C-alpha cells in the first residue's frame, strides 16, 4: 500500500483532487489532498510547505503529487518530509531560488502560450472557459464553482529556497490538450530544468478534473 499526498495548484483548493483521491483509495492506497490558503495575503511558500509537511506527518516514502503552482511547494516539502516519489502534473517547474512571479518570463511562457493559441485556432486572450474549462464536464465545472478562490499575490513573491532537486524518483505528467501550459512548452521546461521527458495523457490544464481515471492510472503505475 502506498500513501499519496496531493498538492493543488493556484487557489489551493483540495477539491481539485476530489475525483482522483477516491480512485487511489479504491485501489487500496491511502490518499489525501491538502487544502492551501491560496487567498491569504500573509501565506507564501513557507506556509504552504508547512501545511503539506503536516499532512504527511509520520508517513514514510509518500508519493507527493503537485499540480501546476503546487510544483513550487513540492521541492521544499521534499527537504522536510519523507517523500519516496515526486510527480509533477502540468507543472510550474521551479529553478532553485526562483519565485512563481518570475517563472513566467524566465520560461518564456507568454510567447509559448500565444503561439499555441494561434496554431490551434483558439483565443489568444485568456478566459477561464477557453483555457481551463474547455474539456471539463459541465457538471464537474458546476460542482467546482463553490471551491474557487483567487490566488493571492503573496505566493508569487515568495522565493523557492531549495538548492537542488531531491535525488528521488521524479515523474512529470502533462495534459495533451493543456492550453494554459501547452505541451511543447511543458516538454521544453521539463527537459531544461529536470532532464526529464514528460509522460502525456489526454486532458487539459485541470487534468485531474478532465481525466481523473487517466491521472489515477498513471499515479498507480509505479
What features would you highlight for this structure?
222 residues; alpha/beta; Rossmann fold; six-stranded parallel sheet
Please describe what this structure looks like.
By secondary structure, the protein is α/β, with parallel strands linked by helices. The chain has a single domain (3-220), classed as Alpha/Beta hydrolase fold, catalytic domain (Rossmann fold), CATH 3.40.50. Helices cover 36% and strands 14% of the residues. The chain starts with a strand and ends with a helix. It has helices at residues 21-26, 45-56, 74-78, 100-107, 109-120, 128-131, 138-144, 183-194, 207-210, 212-220; strands at 3-7, 30-33, 62-67, 83-89, 170-175, 199-201. The protein has ten helices and six strands.
Amino acid at each position: 500500500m502506498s500513501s499519496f499526498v496531493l498538492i493543488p495548484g493556484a487557489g489551493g483548493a483540495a477539491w481539485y483532487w476530489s475525483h482522483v483521491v477516491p480512485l487511489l483509495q479504491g485501489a487500496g492506497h491511502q490518499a489525501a489532498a491538502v487544502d492551501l490558503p491560496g487567498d491569504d495575503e500573509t501565506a507564501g511558500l513557507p506556509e504552504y510547505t508547512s501545511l503539506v509537511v503536516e499532512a504527511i506527518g509520520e508517513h514514510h516514502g509518500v508519493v507527493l503529487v503537485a499540480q501546476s503552482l503546487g510544483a513550487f511547494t513540492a521541492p521544499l516539502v521534499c527537504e522536510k518530509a519523507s517523500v519516496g516519489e515526486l510527480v509533477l502534473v502540468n507543472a510550474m517547474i521551479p529553478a532553485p531560488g526562483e519565485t512563481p512571479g518570475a517563472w513566467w518570463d524566465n520560461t518564456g511562457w507568454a510567447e509559448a502560450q500565444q503561439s499555441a493559441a494561434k496554431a490551434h485556432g483558439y483565443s489568444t486572450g485568456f478566459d477561464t472557459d477557453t483555457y481551463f474549462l474547455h474539456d471539463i464536464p459541465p457538471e464537474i465545472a458546476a460542482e467546482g464553482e463553490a471551491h474557487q478562490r483567487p490566488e493571492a499575490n503573496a505566493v508569487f513573491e515568495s522565493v523557492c529556497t531549495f538548492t537542488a532537486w531531491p535525488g528521488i524518483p521524479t515523474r512529470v505528467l502533462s495534459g495533451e490538450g493543456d492550453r494554459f501550459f501547452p505541451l511543447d512548452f511543458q516538454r521544453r521546461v521539463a527537459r531544461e530544468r529536470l532532464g526529464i521527458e514528460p509522460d502525456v495523457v489526454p486532458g487539459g490544464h485541470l487534468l485531474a478534473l478532465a481525466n481523473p481515471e487517466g491521472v489515477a492510472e498513471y499515479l498507480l503505475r509505479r
